[in-house]
């Protein structure tokens, strides 16, 4: 359980259960995109796998100042719903810069064809489809 409320742009650690191996996963950073839910937040995974030029990955060029240990990218598809009680640690690792967050929002708009969120506003309800298709749910027991 966290002691502070997650907010858009925050980078938190969460347990990522692999979609193809129930009960198996790893701890990874995630970027909070929508923190308006009472029980859960909508996130995008952060990965260290280089994915240059792919539209569903956004490079975090200032990864060190964001609290990350290695060069990283935000994976905007699939989005992941995380229960608030499954966010690890008492506070975020760091926060995406506004310029990187705006790139993530633009990528969300092109990949998911959703309206672009404002950096200080929650994502529209259309982003809350955690049960649908290839979307993976993070932090489930």
TrEMBL record:
Keywords: Toxin-antitoxin system. GO terms for molecular function: DNA binding. Coiled coil: none annotated. Residues 114-141 are annotated as: Disordered. InterPro entries: PemK-like, Plasmid_toxin/cell-grow_inhib. Belongs to the PemK/MazF family. This is Type II toxin-antitoxin system PemK/MazF family toxin. It comes from Adlercreutzia rubneri.
């Amino acid at each position: 359980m966290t002691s502070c409320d997650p907010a858009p742009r925050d980078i938190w650690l969460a347990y990522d259960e692999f979609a193809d191996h129930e009960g198996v996963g790893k701890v990874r950073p995630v970027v909070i995109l929508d923190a308006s839910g009472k029980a859960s937040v909508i996130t995008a995974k952060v990965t260290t796998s280089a994915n240059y030029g792919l539209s569903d990955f956004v490079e975090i060029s200032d990864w060190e100042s964001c609290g990350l240990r290695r060069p990283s990218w935000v994976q905007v598809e699939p989005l992941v719903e995380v229960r608030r009680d499954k966010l690890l640690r008492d506070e975020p690792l760091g926060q995406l810069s506004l310029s990187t967050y705006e790139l993530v929002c633009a990528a969300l708009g092109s990949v998911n064809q959703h309206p672009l969120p404002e950096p200080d506003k929650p994502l529209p309800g259309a982003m809350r489809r955690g049960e649908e298709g290839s979307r993976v749910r993070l932090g489930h027991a």
